[in-house]
Amino acid sequence: MAAVDNHHRIWRDGKFVDWEDATIHVMSHVVHYGSSVFEGIRCYETPRGPAVFRLDAHMRRFADSCRIYRMPLNYSLEELSRAAVETVAENGLPHCYLRPVAIRTGEQMGVLPNDTPLEVFIIPWTWGTYLGADALKNGADVCVSSWRRPAPDTIPMLAKAGGNYLNGQLSKMQARVDNYVEGIMLDSFGLVSEGSGENTFLVRDGKLFTSTIGSGILNGITRDSVIRIAKDMGVEVVEQAIPREMLYIADELFFTGTAAEITPIRSVDRIPVGTGKPGALTLAIQREYMGIAGGTLEDRYGWLTPVPARQAASATRGPVRERVGDMSASPI
After folding, report:
1. d(CA 129, CA 123)
2. Which of 181, 191, 241, 256 is deepest in the core (most CB within 10 A)?
3. Are strands 140-144 and 261-268 parallel, antiparallel or unpaired?
């Protein structure tokens, strides 16, 4: 299978630049001190053309992350949303993964980010299944990691910050060395938190359980989508502290995330989850989520932002004259 060419044009502070020109200096603050925040957003190929999934929610979290880390973001949410849509259109992509990232650059040394410029990029990337096609269909084999999520008074986990993922890297690498697809981390109190880049859901006796946002998790957009879908299906959703052993007695388990989408979990620490196959509720939620995202089911929540044809796109920093969601006369 031929490798995907991901050398797309990148949005950089209001204009598009070629892939090879989207560079920073080695003395940039972000290189030495991890001062970046980012988002991961999927644009899906739908019967009516490409559409970005939950764009408004992602950009709001992006701005929240900047605010938490005192990064002066000079773009409104509408400007950022428009830039994301234009990035897809500029590259003529039927589907992609979008990576908005705000980074402190400059050419100086020192932890305190005084007078460091903040640059914003939106990078399009063609990306398939994150945990593998087999895991998406048959379920992933995971372990409980020996690495824990940070305590609440250490670093803010509600910010999607680049530095947070050093912790996730350690968990992920450990899992792969031990022949697992992914690791599930506990929080500083020994309760279930999340995967290296995914939230976790558990089914027991027909109820859907997930950890609270106080458990060292990222407040996931896909997590929120699943909660809303499940409640509309008549499923009771319980957000609570989850002890580790509940992972071993769950009827079903699954990961959620923009990259991972809805990925079933078939075993934890070699203990089969339920029957060892994706459960009925997991598959029902997966079908509903992917149907809405892919435009084959009604977008009853207004989660899809259509991408117009390239000739309608503009890379200007001028005022936004309309909501991005209104850029098509035929909304999906």
Report:
1. 18
2. 256
3. parallel
Active site amino acids: 160
Copy the structure tokens of residue 133: 């096609």
Q: Compute the distance between CA of residue 43 and CA of residue 130 in angstroms, rounded to an integer.
A: 15
Domain boundaries 10-128+300-315, CATH class: alpha beta
Query: 3-state DSSP call for residue 231?
Result: helix
Unique residue bearing structure tokens 């279930």 = 192
Q: Is 132 helix (H, G, I), strand (E, B) or coil?
A: coil
DSSP character string of 205-231: TTEEEE--TTSS----HHHHHHHHHHH
Which two three-digit tokens encode residue 159?
């910010």
| Region 33-58 average pLDDT | 97
**In the prediction, which pLDDT does 2 show?**
59
C-alpha span between 3 and 5 (Å, rounded) = 6
- What is the distance between the alpha carbons of residues 41 and 43, in angstroms, rounded to a whole number? 7
Task: Report DSSP letters for 4-63, one per residue.
Answer: P-----EEETTEEE-GGG----TT-HHHHH--EEE--EEEEEETTEEEEETHHHHHHHHH
Question: Could you check whether 10-128+300-315 and 133-278 share the same CATH topology?
Answer: no
Nearest Cα residue to 260 out of 233, 236, 225:
225
CB 9 within 8 A of CB 91: yes
Q: Helices 280-293 and 221-232 meet at what angle, rounded to 10?
A: 110
pLDDT given for residue 81 in this prediction: 98
Instruction: Please write the tens of the pLDDT for every residue from 124-133.
Output: 999 877 877 8
Distance in angstroms (rounded) separating the CA atoms of residues 325 and 304:
8
Going from N- to C-terminal start, the domains of the chain cover 10-128+300-315, 133-278
Gyration radius from the chain CA atoms: 20
H-run or E-run covering 86: helix 77-91
Express each pLDDT in 93-127 by its tens digit: 999 999 999 999 999 999 999 889 999 999 999 98
